[in-house]
Amino acid sequence: MSDFLQLLVGAVTLGAIYALIALGFNLIFAASRLMNFAQGDLAMLGAMVGVTLAGTLHLPFSLVVLAAVVVVGLLFLAFNLGVLRPLAKRNATLTSMVMATLALSMFLQGAAELIWGRLEQAVPSPVGSTPLLVGGIVIVPHYLVVVGTSAVAFLAMFFFFRRTLTGKALLATGFEPEAARLVGINPVSMVALTCFLGGGFAALGGLIIGPITFAAPWMGLSLAVKGFAASMLGGLGSLPGALLGGLIVGLLETFGAGYVSSAYSDAIIFLALMLILFVRPAGLLGSPLVTGEHF
Amino acid sequence: MLSKNMKTVATAVLVVLLFSLPLLPLTKYQLHLANLIAISAILAMSLDLLFGYLGQMSLAHAGFYGVGAYAAALLTTHGIMSFWLATPVAMVVCGLVGVLLGLPALRLTGFYLAMATMAFGIILSTLFVQSVDLTGGPNGLLGINPPQFFGTDLIGPQKGIVGNYYYLLLIAGIATYLFLRRLTSGRTGRIITAVRDSTLAAAAVGINTRIVQITIFGLSCAFAGLAGSLYAHLILYISPESFTFTNSLLALLAVVFGGIGTIWGPVIGSAILTILGELTRSFGAYQLLFYAAAIVFVIMIVPHGISGLLRDIAGKVSRRDGGTASRRSAAPCDVQPAAALPSFEAGKATLLSVHGLSKRFGGLQALQDVGFEVRAGEIKALIGPNGSGKTTLFNCISGFEKADTGRVDFSGKAIRNLAAYRIARAGMARSFQIVQLFTQLTVAENVLLAGQRVYRASLVGTFLGFSEATRAERENIAAAEALLVEAGLHERLSHKASTLPYGRQRILEIARALATNPRLILLDEPAAGLNTGEALQLADYLRRVRDRGVTILVVEHNMAFVMGLADSVVVLDRGRIIADGTPAEVQNDPGVIAAYLGTSPAEAALDA
Amino acid sequence: MKVPSIFSALLLASAAGFAALTPAAAGDYVVGVIVPQSGQTAFIGDSALKAMILRAEQINAEGGINGHKIKLDAQDEKCNPTSAVNIAQEFVNGSGVAGVLGPFCSADSIAVKPIFARAKVVDLTVASTADAITKDSKWTFQIAAPDGVYAQTLANYAADHGKKIAILNDTSAFGLGAYATVDKVLKQRNANVVAHEQITAGQADLTPQVLKLKQAGADFVVALVLGGDAAKLCLTSRDLGFKAQLAGQTAWSFPNVLSLSKGACDGAIFTDPFDPDKPEAKSMLDAYQKRWNDRPQSYFAAAGWDALSLWAEAAKKAGTAGSDEIDQEKLLDALDNTKGYKGVMGVGDATINFSATDHIALDVDGTHLRRIQGDKLISLGDEKSK
């Protein structure tokens, strides 16, 4: 039983991270119907910002969070303006744009290798490293930071989409760009906003998982793959879906390795994902109408 | 501008050039790269069949490539069979694995399908790594024997690792290319494109869309397996690193680079990517930057791939040229419409009868105990207020939705809950409320496709170009031209269907339905969005069709249109039939008037 | 008529591409290096390549070999067999080289073996540890100590010091390969292996694996993982109160094990073919520090240094002053007759000896155990033989 609870602590923490990556992915998808392959590498960049600002320069963590979100958010915004927009203007297919994000992913990895080296590096945690003992369960203090940050991010986004006009406009843009334009929403600025937010949330995810997994230039792929899985599992474009999907992927990964087989833990996640999608072709909370065009 | 002769000459020159490549002063390293390009080209072509033509994504193709490589390599290294037998066996294995994945996975679309295939690819990768006893695990499978050809080692020590293998790869590549070109053009090509453009409309003209999707998925996987076997027997060593998710992405990138849906484009894309990878290699630590920048650069220059670039250029040239090609094929035909078109005897017999049909969606009773009949040769209208269940009723009759209870008989056969394509084949065609055309096919092809089951030929015959198949195609063309003349669309034969104005699209959809040679045709709001003139033309057209004995059941809101056209009218309200009779009877029915919220039919007509 | 011109432009571009891939050598001995320069394994290649550059500069300053200067042609193998095969093809059939050092990744070294064997070109693999590297090919040498050698030292120590032994490995070629060998040796010694767990390299959270090791009651864990994961294992074990002796191989000498684990790895041991306090190693490290402003603690720099030195010794005998090509049969013969070479690698008085049937540089005597103690790695000396 205590092992079960111990695993649960790890699973929820992982799930919170995957949910954040999925949130960023869903935001970008919501406004531009784009599958962003660089999502994991944007997270990696967030962690690397942490390495430099918190590790080397010892800046306060709140400032580091702000810097990571803004820097990475602006970077992806710049990519959107410099590459994706011009492609869209030339009537490029969605697939071409997806491939451009794949190239961005490679570029970021290559750049990070040159700037920060190839080995894993420490990202300092804002809280101490002495584990808390709660009823026989070990809780690393940073785990609470992860879950807390994720919870705040999701609450903020719920509020944004339910209560603010901009949030509602953003959703409308994804469903019907033309209609959105007719009622006075500027789809271009909406896409820009989601690019900034999507990049920012990825960075946040990378920055807060850094103290647990360390930061390495090649960490992006696995984060991206699990983030996608979380997003699809929950349902593309669904906010509660991202949260649910993230938690399920976290649970599958941890309990799969803990109770089934550590050799096949990735295979277990993806087998379960396939089976769930076969039964629910639009994810658990997704709309069957929103499946993305063919890429 | 490229005349047919020039094209033939260019192709011949290219083939000769490719075959004489080993005679050129190239190093074996460069020939080795040519070998790799040939293999990745086969992989990319196989993905293009799936992605470019069927519109379905696979991010597991490197996995299938791996299955082919391991299957063939295990068969040859254990001495179970020779390379020549092992390769087709590996293709079959891959095809079967593909079909097994496709059966559940092809219910998914868009990103979800991408995700499911990606998941499958990752599972395959894990299996390659963990099945150490079978695959050698991450350290790979060693000591694969070079293929033998009449006693000669194709990768002989005298010739280094290249040897005569290049010719084998070249022949395999060209064969794959020709096979896929043939498959994606003509009758089979139309079917594949139709299934991509609209599975609904494809089913409505009698295509078993699932079989088509799964067959293409399986074929695509089989060719990925071919590439895998060829790779294993070139390198003579395989390890999981060559078959990861990243490799699937690179195959997709090759397709995008070359141009989606061309087959030859991905060949160029593979060449560019392979050479790019080698060129950037010596940049050492900076290579990923250069490689990524080069990819973005190429995508920015040619967002539609190399083939898109060439198409744009060719398009400009032919526009300057006056577009003779399209004019030629659009030349008016001498066919006499009436003679070529089939007609049916218009008896008083019942063609369609519906009894006690009910359908429930969760808490909503969409249809309740619905019953009515359609007599052969009449135009019957189905009307009712919004949300009364008309489209649901249509869908239940034509097999696009399953009714819960009740009975539907068509031409004396019980057809309730048969698959839509079976009902279509039984002689019931339909149109859709939201026009469902095959947008990437031309006007003529839309109709030709629908006629393929009438003027049929065996798939193999079609594929090999047997005379029986050619004759069937000729007859199909004649019939299609006649139908399009009847519909007044014969001046736009070679235009893409998507370029027609809205009203013409509606007519084309009906003409396409008629091409399946139906006894009964169901039209879902054919006059919606048409102006008065267009509606009158449509009514005329439908009467001509009825006069050939084709029975018509039409859902329509436009009362003036309905009352002027229909021989009888059935009224649906909140899932129940409330009236059934001649237009005059129905118009004066108090129940009907009440159902339209107190508005008189005349006012309803004015509203519409 | 634009279409044909585009075609010819494409053809020209590809032709130019082919041409650029063939650099010309003039008067120098070109030594091809197949080395990971990008991705997860690039760290391993980095210090080795720097040591090779340093060694080449030294040799060239001393007048070169037979009057020829050494020119290194380093190409990124990406730890991907297809890439490694392409490079080998280029070295053998394209550009032409006087010697080949690398690959570093085991799967890559295995993949290129048939190419060098067919072309009859000598290949000195640098950091590949798989046991299969030198099998069935007289053209391939192995500078790194193979898994079997590590496993022997490690398994012996484990069998002597652990009552309940567990093995943890990552699912990379290195991890699974090393696992197979360690497991075999432990079985031979009838050691009590109570658990075997695997991780994905770079895995986020090791809680499930550590809990299972703890459940199994293991008191000695052989962890065949790379540096970052080793640190993660130490931290997770400490947090979860799992107090087994942790043991590994050379990857535990990565600098980030110390910097990331913040003391959690204290007391962990690992086998290594490198002793930085040995005079030969010391002088190499001093020179390295002067040239690159860094002092590697792992053996890769030493392996790179020794690989090039061994090649240079043999090339002196096999080459002639007049030609920048080296007869590879003669080179092989010279290498096969290497006896008593005292390298930077290896510990104590161990020497490198090759013969026609033995192409492995180091055996068990060439490795020792090191322990992480504070911010230092100390040698356990002869403790392995207990």
Q: Could you outline the blueprint of secondary structure elements for this entry?
A:
The complex is a heterotrimer of chains A (295), B (608) and C (386).
Chain A: H1 2-32, H2 39-56, H3 61-89, H4 94-116, E1 132-134, E2 137-139, H5 141-163, H6 165-175, H7 177-182, H8 187-213, H9 220-234, H10 239-260, H11 265-279
Antiparallel strand pairs in A: 1-2
Chain B: H1 4-19, H2 28-53, H3 61-77, H4 83-105, H5 110-130, H6 132-135, E1 148-149, E2 152-153, H7 165-183, H8 186-197, H9 199-204, H10 209-235, H11 245-258, H12 264-281, H13 287-301, H14 305-320, H15 324-329, H16 337-340, E3 350-361, E4 364-375, E5 379-383, H17 390-398, E6 405-410, E7 413-414, H18 420-425, E8 428-430, H19 443-451, H20 459-464, H21 467-487, H22 502-515, E9 520-524, H23 532-547, E10 551-555, H24 559-565, E11 568-573, E12 576-581, H25 583-587, H26 590-595, H27 601-607
Parallel strand pairs in B: 5-10, 5-11, 8-9, 9-10
Antiparallel strand pairs in B: 1-2, 3-4, 3-6, 6-7, 11-12
Chain C: H1 2-20, E1 29-35, H2 42-61, E2 70-76, H3 81-95, E3 99-101, H4 106-119, E4 123-125, E5 140-142, H5 147-161, E6 165-170, H6 173-188, E7 193-199, H7 207-215, E8 220-224, H8 227-239, E9 245-248, H9 255-261, E10 269-272, H10 279-292, H11 300-318, H12 328-336, E11 368-373, E12 376-379
Give the beta-strand count of chain B: 12
Which runs of chain C of at least 5 residues are low in confidence (pLDDT < 50)? 1-25
How many strand units of chain C?
Answer: 12
Order of strands, widest sheet of chain C: 7-6-8-9-10-11-12
Helix content of chain B: 55-70%
Radius of gyration of chain B: 29 Å
| Largest sheet entry of chain B | 6 strands, mixed
The domain tally of chain C reads 2
General description of the model:
The complex is a heterotrimer of chains A (295), B (608) and C (386). Chain A is mainly α and 295 residues long. Chain A has one domain (2-221). Chain A has 11 helices and 2 strands. In chain A, β1 (132-134) and β2 form a beta hairpin. In chain A, α2 crosses α9. Chain B has 2 domains: 34-278, no CATH class; 350-442 and 516-607, P-loop containing nucleotide triphosphate hydrolases (Rossmann fold, 3-Layer(aba) Sandwich), CATH 3.40.50.300. Chain B is built from 27 helices and 12 strands. In chain B, the strands form 3 sheets. A 6-stranded mixed sheet of chain B has the order 8-9-10-5-11-12, with helices on both faces. The relative contact order of chain B is 0.10. Residues 321-339 and 604-608 of chain B have low confidence and may be disordered. Chain C has 386 residues and is of the alpha/beta class. In chain C, strands 7-6-8-9-10-11-12 form a 7-stranded mixed sheet, sandwiched between helices. In chain C, strands 2-1-3-4-5 form a 5-stranded parallel sheet, sandwiched between helices. Chain C is elongated and about 70 Å long. Chains B and C meet through α2, α12 and α14 of B and α1, β2, α3, α4 and α6 of C.
